[in-house]
């Protein structure tokens, strides 16, 4: 539900990290004697490096460009995550419902369901409309139909509480957390 591609983010972070490591090792080899001695075994380094003034300006320009591009990526990525679940305006009045209320209603309604380990609620701004994402971690071997019925009942209660319907994406997951979760004991 965000506007950026996860794979693109990972590749971009990998490339920036790789470039940072290469630049750091290069600078360290030119300045720090211990780094120079450690690299001497693998790479022959010149004793003295002379760089023309024009090359320094080109390097400074490339560094400035990389910084500007990094800032653009930082300020334009993500997009959507918000703490406001519902905002209604009527004249000069405005009612704002925080995501905490949505979390409390969903948690309260799903508390007694045996097959649910945890449920997390996030809200996003998607195409200028607020929507919720509910991630439900289902216990290993749990009944998905029972879980979906419980989530549907919780959403009905949420809609009644808010007085309107909120677009919702329900995401059922399993995995390590659900495999290691303790089973519910009846006493």
Task: Name some characteristics of this structure.
187 residues, alpha+beta, Alpha-Beta Plaits, 2 domains, 4-stranded mixed β-sheet, two-stranded antiparallel sheet, 6 helices, 50% helix, Alkaline shock response membrane anchor protein AmaP, transmembrane helix, transmembrane, membrane
Describe this structure in words.
This protein is α+β, with helices and mostly antiparallel strands and 187 residues long. It has two domains: 6-76, no CATH class; 81-180, Cation efflux protein, cytoplasmic domain (Alpha-Beta Plaits), CATH 3.30.70. 50% of the residues lie in helices and 22% in strands. It has six helices and six strands; from the N terminus they run αααβββαββαβα. The radius of gyration is 26 Å and the shape is elongated.
Count of discrete alpha- or pi-helical segments spanning 4 or more residues: 6
**Spatial arrangement of strands, main beta sheet:** 1-4-5-6
Radius of gyration of CA atoms, rounded to a whole number? 26 Å
The separation of the N and C termini measures 41 Å
Quickly give the structural class. alpha+beta
Task: Tell me the name of the CATH homologous superfamily of the largest domain.
Answer: Cation efflux protein, cytoplasmic domain
- Net shape: elongated
Quick check: average pLDDT? 80
Spell out the helices and strands N to C.
HHHEEEHEEHEH
- Summed up, the domain count is 2
Helix content: 40-55%
Largest β sheet strand count, sense and barrel closure: 4 strands, mixed
| Contiguous uncertain segments of 5+ residues | none
The percentage of residues in β strands lies in: 15-25%
- Please tell me the CATH architecture of the largest domain by its name: 2-Layer Sandwich
CATH classification, class level of the largest domain: Alpha Beta
Number of strands: 6
Query: Might you state the CATH topology name of the largest domain?
Result: Alpha-Beta Plaits
Keywords: Membrane, Transmembrane, Transmembrane helix
Organism: Curtobacterium caseinilyticum
Transmembrane segments: 12-35, 55-75
Protein name: Alkaline shock response membrane anchor protein AmaP
């Amino acid at each position: 539900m965000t506007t950026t591609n996860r794979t693109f983010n990972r590749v971009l972070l990998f490339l920036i990290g790789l470039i940072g490591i290469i630049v750091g090792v290069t600078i360290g080899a030119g300045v720090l004697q211990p780094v120079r001695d450690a690299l001497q075994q693998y790479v022959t380094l010149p004793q003295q490096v002379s760089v023309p003034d024009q090359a320094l300006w080109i390097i400074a320009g490339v560094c400035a460009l990389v910084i500007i591009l990094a800032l653009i990526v930082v300020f334009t990525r993500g997009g959507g995550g918000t703490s406001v679940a519902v905002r209604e305006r009527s004249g000069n009045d405005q009612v704002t419902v925080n995501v905490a209320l949505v979390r409390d209603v969903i948690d309260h309604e799903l508390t007694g369901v045996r097959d649910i380990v945890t449920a997390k609620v996030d809200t996003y701004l998607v195409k200028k409309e607020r929507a919720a994402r509910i991630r439900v971690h289902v216990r290993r071997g749990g009944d998905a139909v029972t879980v979906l019925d419980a989530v549907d009942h919780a959403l009905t209660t949420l809609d009644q509480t808010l007085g309107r319907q909120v677009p919702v994406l329900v995401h059922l997951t399993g995995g390590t957390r659900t495999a290691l979760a303790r089973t519910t004991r009846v006493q």
